[in-house]
Structures are given as C-alpha cells and as structure tokens.
Amino acid sequence: xxxxxxxxxxxxxxxxxxxxxxxxxxxxxxxxxxxxxxxxxxxxxxxxxxxxxxxxxxxxxxxxxxxxxxxxxxxxxxxxxxxxxxxxxxxxxxxxxxxxxxxxxxxxxxxxxxxxxxxxxxxxxxxxxxxxxxxxxxxxxxxxxxxxxxxxxxxxxxxxxxxxxxxxxxxxxxxxxxxxxxxxxxxxxxxxxxxxxxxxxxxxxxxxxxxxxxxxxxxxxxxxxxxxxxxxxxxxxxxxxxxxxxxxxxxxxxxxxxxxxxxxxxxxxxxxxxxxxxxxxxxxxxxxxxxxxxxxxxxxxxxxxxxxxxxxxxxxxxxxxxxxxxxxxxxxxxxxxxxxxxxxxxxxxxxxxxxxxxxxxxxxxxxxxxxxxxxxxxxxxxxxxxxxxxxxxxxxxxxxxxxxxxxxxxxxxxxxxxxxxxxxxxxxxxxxxxxxxxxxxxxxxxxxxxxxxxxxxxxxxxxxxxxxxxxxxxxxxxxxxxxxxxxxxxxxxxxxxxxxxxxxxxxxxxxxxxxxxxxxxxxxxxxxxxxxxxxxxxxxxxxxxxxxxxxxxxxxxxxxxxxxxxxxxxxxxxxxxxxxxxxxxxxxxxxxxxxxxxxxxxxxxxxx
Length: 608
Ligand code: GLC
Prior knowledge:
- This protein is an alpha/beta fold.
- The protein has 3 domains: about 60-155 and about 240-265 and about 300-505, Alpha-Beta Barrel (TIM Barrel); about 160-235, Oligo-1,6-glucosidase, domain 2, CATH 3.90.400; about 525-600, Immunoglobulin-like (Sandwich), CATH 2.60.40.1180.
- It contains 18 helices and 20 strands.
- The chain has helices at about 5-15, 25-35, 65-70, 80-85, 90-95, 130-140, 160-165, 240-255, 300-315, 330-335, 355, 360-375, 395, 405-415, 445-450, 490-495, 500-515, 515-520; strands at about 60-65, 100, 145-150, 180, 215, 220-225, 260, 280-285, 290, 320-325, 350, 420-425, 525, 535-540, 545-550, 555-560, 570-580, 585, 590-595, 600.
- A 7-stranded parallel beta sheet has the order 11-10-7-3-2-1-12.
- Strand 13 (about 525) and strand 14 form a beta hairpin.
- The longest helix has 16 residues, at about 240-255.
- The radius of gyration is 25 Å and the shape is globular.
- The two termini are about 45 Å apart.
- The structure holds alpha-D-glucopyranose.
C-alpha cells in the first residue's frame, strides 16, 4: 500500500475509511492556575538501579483515551473525566503507565475537541478543572501519568484570540492568524464563466475538504485553515503565538501533567510564498481535484526551533515531561529528524508505519523496525497500530476468521519490540470498527461531506466495551455513537474471566514486559532475516535475553535458529508466554509455531 505523509493525521482516512507575553493571555492563564494550588509531580524514585538515569517514558506504555467514548460517570451518553477516574483501577490492573487524553477542553466540538475555544479549562460536558486535578492525583497514586493533547496548529473560530483577530484589520491579534487578500491579477473564472472577484490567495485545499481559505466579509480578507473552516490556523511566525502556547503548556505542567501529545505538528508552518500546489489527475472524496500538498504540508525547518523551545519549557519541570508527536513522515529520515540532531526536540515521535503496512509481512515489519531502531540519534521508537483517526487494526489486520489470534500477534509486536508503545482504548479487548451505515447517522463532518467514499472516523470512536449489558455498560443513556457489534463477546467483564482472551493476553504481555530485564532494557536483535513467514528477534542485555517469534501466516511454520551468533549458548528456551498452549520449555534451535502464533521465551544465561 502506498504511504502518504498525511497518514498519521488523516490520509489513513481516505485509505481505510476513508517574544513577549500577551498580558491578557498571561493573566487568563494565571487566573485559572490560581483555582488550584500548583501540584508539581515529584521525581520518580522507582527507576531500576541499573538505569536510574532513564526517564520514566523510556519504559512506559502509553494508552490513548478518547474521553467522549471511554466511561460515562454521569450517564448522559458521553464519556467524561470522572468516568476516566473511576476506571483507573482497571487501567492500573491492565498495566499501562500513562494516559494520553485527546482534547477535553472547551470546544464547539465541530472536530470533537480538536477545535479548542479555551486552552486552559475543561469542557463543561466532560467536567471541571477540579475533576481533572482529582484525575491527576488519583492516577499518580497508581503511578499512572496524564499526557494532554496540545493542539498548536489551530484554535476554534470561537476562541477569543480568533474572535479578536477577525474583529478588525488593526486588532492587536490580527496577526495571530493567517490572513490574506484575495488573489490579484487575472482572476480565475467561476462555473458560469464570470471572474471570481473573491478568489482565494492560492489553490491550497483543506485536508477536510474544499479550499483552505475562508472568506471573512467583515474585514474583506481570507483566513487560512488546514482543517475545517472552524479551525483557523495560528500564525506561528508571530512570536506572541509561540509565547502564548508555551504559557498553555506551563498551565498544564503546573497542574501535574506528564507531557503533551502534539497534534498535527507538521502543519504548523506554511511556505511564506504561498505558491500554488501542483494539481494531480482525478478527484478526491470531497469532489476536489487531487493535489500534491507540497507547499502547505511539509516539515519546514521552523518547526525544529519551535520544538526545541517547547522542550526547554518542559525541561524546567521535574520528572522528565515528554512530547509525543503526531509526526507523519513520508520518509524514515523525516521521522528520525523529528527527534532533533541532539535528541532535543520530540522525545517520542509517533511511528505510524505499523499502521500503514496492513498486511502480516515478516519482512516489512523487520525492515520498518530496523530502520527506526538503528536511528543514529538514539531516539526512542514509538510504535502505533490504532488511534482515533484510523480504522481499528483489529479490522485492518484481521482476516475475518482469525482476528483474535491476529490481535494477539500484533499486540506482541507492539509490546515486545524496543520502544515506547502507544495503545488505543479497547484494542486490548479486540474492539472492532463500526462504521455508520447511513449518512444521516454520521457524526464526523468529513464523513458527511465525503459520504459514501469517506465515512468519517466514527467507526473507531465507539464506546468502550465494559460488559455485555445494554450499550456495553458504557452508559445507561443512549451513547453518542452506537457500540461496536462485537461487544457481547469482546468486553472487559467477560474477557477478564477468560485466561485465553485478548485482554488476558495483553495483561500478561504488559506484566512480562515490565518484569523481564531483557524485554525492558534489552537491545533489539533481528533473527532469521530471510524468513518471510516468521518475524523473530531477540531482546538482549548482558546475560539476559528474550526470544520473540511471531508466525505471520495461516500455516504452521517451523522456526530454526542459530542463537550462538548472538552469543547465546542455551539449548532450551524457557517459555515466558505464548498465544497457544506451548510446553514450559522448548528447544532453542528448532520449534514449530501454529498459524498466527506468538512465542516469547527466555534464552538468557539463567534459562537452563
Ligand atoms: C489530528 C487529530 C485529528 C484532528 C486533526 C485536526 O490529526 O488526530 O483527530 O481532526 O488533528 O486537529
């Protein structure tokens, strides 16, 4: 499948579903900070003695929560902050270390929270700042950290920054957004052949359909929006914007958050010349001409300085706060560049390439892992299979017959390779996608605009499946989206009791990953690099070594290994866990894996 640079943001949609402080801002931030005494996190004490300098995120598993769909404490059909707090024991028991919560700030909810009208508060429909403080405190008791979503590229058109900006051409905030005059010179003709006097400054298109320029009759100029018109792009060439956003970061860090997931980070800057993008043949789901977005969707060097400055803000806080980037990259070099030459930019640039492969190919996985694992800046790999923008990987990788087994296989790859994995709520259950069947049921605006080719992202955002009761136990009210079809068989209550369930497999993996020195600290060593069917590797540190073997096919496969090349001399491998009923120990040089089976075994010095 051809990759696209936008995949992490949304091209997966089309493929699968588709300076000085501004005093008012500073005061606003201060006022809200004063509603609760500052709760800075204390330094993590429980790091392993041998790796006491490792930041916490190096050995963490991050779990993405879409708050609208996770747990509904007030039973109004929409998830909320208190709901998340009530489920912390579940998350602790599962074994995750940090929660990335997608935007839960005040918002008109055009893009379900990614259109923010106040960066320093909690949306009333999700709770209050006090509820949020309680969540942070309760999570901390369980050694779970909270990562917030920082949407830097754009605000909502209802944010007071934009309302001021659009009020007049001379407003002090005018230059906080990207305003331009209509195109001058020979004007393009409209459909009836007349010249269009309000022709947009260039031909750029929004990712969510149609022109990226919205005419504002009040001041007779266009403003730029990479996403919906209700999400005007902030002007990152204005130092005041940078200052204001850094203040937002401080506001949340002061409340005890452990870092930020950086939304749509590649789109912060546009080329100043505003050159037209090259047009390609054909039309997209929105009826617009296909385009090569080479001038408004690219990793401009300015992003790097902005990231370094944000890192400096984080570095003033204890406990190593982290940046988790929505770093979409067409080429591996671009992904590696996101760490920064001195590893001083984004610590965890998300690697969406697992999400793009969509076929169980041992060689493709092996290549992708090697490309990032060997990066020269020592950056931490950050693999992702599913998120709130893409079809759940239970469906993407599943073959319709062996989906549960395949879900275990992908879980093992995610959780035993070297790196900081990012899980998506419900993947631990094998939650499936549920796309809307009728246009009138679609909630995500791109699904309405692009129907039926583009069904939107509702399908991967359905309520968490807590039990087999009505609405999967998510809410007693009608949920904002219908639950996925498999909730009766794939839910927390049922799977918790079943040692062979996907949930039990995830729990076991998360626990083994924590306890086993090789899986926790070991380097990644590829094995049998010519094997097209079985992905095998070692995690190795000193005398500790773990072997992982994943049969990516629907046939039994014999695995023959020569571990002596990696300095391993044991003849027997002690099975740590397997997705089939494996014996306690097996030969370390030859064994057979059933279809889609995974084996994780200790082959360290102490194994025999
Ligand atoms: C990111 C988010 C996506 C959102 C977009 C605009 O890609 O993941 O959900 O619609 O940014 O903020």
